[in-house]
Amino acid sequence: MKHVLPLFGLLACFAAGAQDPAPTQPVASNATPAALPTSTTASPVQQFTLRNGMTLIVQADRRAPTALHMVWLRVGAMDEVDGTSGVAHVLEHMMFKGSAKVAPGDFSRRVAALGGQENAFTSRDYTGYYQQIPSDKLAAVMQLEADRFAHNQWPDAEFKKELEVVKEERRLRTEDKPRALLMEQLYATAFNASPYRRPIIGWMSDLDSLTANDVRQFHRQWYVPANAAVVVVGDVDVQQVRQLAEKTYGRIAARAVPTRKPRTEPAQQGLRRVEVKAPAEQGYVALGFKAPALRQLDAQAMTDGDRDALALIVLSALLSGYDGARLERALSQGPQRVADATHSGADVMGRGPGLFVLLGVPSQGKTAQQVEDALRAELARVARDGVNSAELERVKTQWMASTIYERDSLQSRGQDVGSSWVQGLPLDAEDRLLALLGTVTPAQVQAVAQRYFVDEQLTVATLIPQPLDTQRKRAPGPALSTRH
């Protein structure tokens, strides 16, 4: 990440345990949320529970006559079962195919006629739908979204057509993309019990055997009011939005949320390696170290694992969070450069286990093994020599500045509160996270570098480039949907 993104949105979108880790230095117990402005005219975020158990989150901002409307569901690829991987994403596509009142394709046409833009997204942890519309059209959009949430309905013929679109999406965005294919294999190898081992798009064999009733059953099971949150940000009156929500979403029948099984990842017993051979111009290497996940943002209740996850977030930023960061200086600059590009990511915020990822692209004449060795050498350097306070202050200042800047975006604010709700965090999670990251010390960063970057917690995935003329040839598939 060469540019600094809004912190909480970045961590939420990027998706353990060592044996008996020694405790790190505790985060200051008096850490409080940083006093970050939302905008010059935004009111505080307010949360309500509708009569059927659905959550409503609203923030008024009167600067422009527009509003962002989102529906977040606490269900994603991690809630699938073996044999139906990809069903959460396929359902996202099918949600645009109608209801008893709306014909296939009409949802998007109606939103466009209202002057709005819309889309959807699926991750391991959640599924979301959104529309940005003129604020005086909010009632119409809420009625449309509540209708398809409760009454999604389509003929089998529509499913068969859309399934081919999803399969083509897998071919183009994973199977024909060597680096995407490599990352798929990294997660499939790093995790055994955790559902994070399955790709969000699904395995092709599962898509081949997926049925319309599999998708309908997934909708009935998980699209229940108590498993969803409506987020509205923009030029709105909070009480009016609440009344509209009760008239639309509040009328959906309440049902129980299914019980989730705790699919705990067992401790890794040794280094794992996987190689991927694919037509490519350059090699690629990805290192994934098992890491603790961040579950708690209350300084008084945080565990040692939570504190270590904070320090790993800071370490990732020190390694690649800005132009000229440690990895770039060490691997991509100077006459001894070994990599054309590098990246680090602390994938520690989600409903599943954490993974600290390092990526590198070998320079011409250099090997993936040389890049792997150089990446590990930088981790060893931090473990041996530590980091300095000036480095920490730089990334903390950048986080603060970028967060304030991004709060001018309705989309960014909706993403922040929606992803916070999915993870069971408070609505001011980004403020709390920034405040807690501000307390991380150089000693804590050095301690996690010593504790987690060991062979017993490492999975290495290496791309072995094959000649480009062996690229798989196939007939053009169906046009891809614009859905994420």
What does this structure look like?
Residues 1-18 form the signal peptide. This is Zinc protease. By secondary structure, the chain is an alpha+beta fold. It has 2 domains: 7-33 and 264-469, Metalloenzyme, LuxS/M16 peptidase-like (Cytochrome Bc1 Complex, Chain A, domain 1, 2-Layer Sandwich), CATH 3.30.830.10; 46-251, Cytochrome Bc1 Complex, Chain A, domain 1, CATH 3.30.830.10. Helices cover 39% and strands 17% of the residues. It is built from 16 helices and 11 strands. The radius of gyration is 23 Å and the shape is globular.
Instruction: Please give the alpha-carbon distance between the first and last residues.
Output: 21 Å
Strand order of the largest sheet: 1-2-6-3-5-4
In CATH, the homologous superfamily of the largest domain goes by the name Metalloenzyme, LuxS/M16 peptidase-like
The CATH class of the largest domain is Alpha Beta
**Tally of domains:** 2
| Helical proportion, percent range | 25-40%
Sheet of most strands: 6 strands, mixed
Looking at the structure, the CATH topology of the largest domain is Cytochrome Bc1 Complex, Chain A, domain 1
CATH architecture of the largest domain: 2-Layer Sandwich
Low-confidence stretches: 1-40
**Content-based structural category:** alpha+beta
The pLDDT mean sits at 90
**How many strand units?**
11
